[in-house]
What does this fold into?
Amino acid sequence: MKKILTAAFSAAFVLTASSLFAQEEIFNEAFNGPEAITRFDDVMPANAKVAEKDGKYFLQVNVPADNKSKSYSVKRVIPLGQVKGKTLKVSAMVKADDVTKPKDPWNGIKIMVYTDSPTKGKLWKNYDGLFGTFDWKKVEYEVAIPEDTLVCQITFGLQDSTGTVSFDDILITAK
Ligand SMILES: [Ca+2]
It folds into this structure.
């Protein structure tokens, strides 16, 4: 009996270990200080910054009530060699304060992957339906990246909403 159990545990370990190794880390950002903003592209300093509360740093995007129609975000360009033809897993902690409900469900809080390829065209994958006020929570989704994509970009921010959104512990892996 002991032998069978040991074999079962070994098999379980090998399976767990191999699936872990199959996930390649693409981007990992815990915002451990103000300089973390330099690892993003297209930053709008008036609206997006690394904020600090109780010694904890995080990305914060704020849109005042009179600027609703624009998009406020930071972007991160993902190197294509790491993601073409793979499935990206996007995970982040998110917190919202008075984020207004957008007219279209794909707007509002953006945790969005954008690709553009000859075969599939432009694709946007967002974690839809986030607005209002809520405490830190983890959001997670997967998106298939076309084999022939010419761009891969992830956006964090607000579009067609006002309010404040915070992001932390961003982890993107590919398999
Ligand atoms: Ca942090």
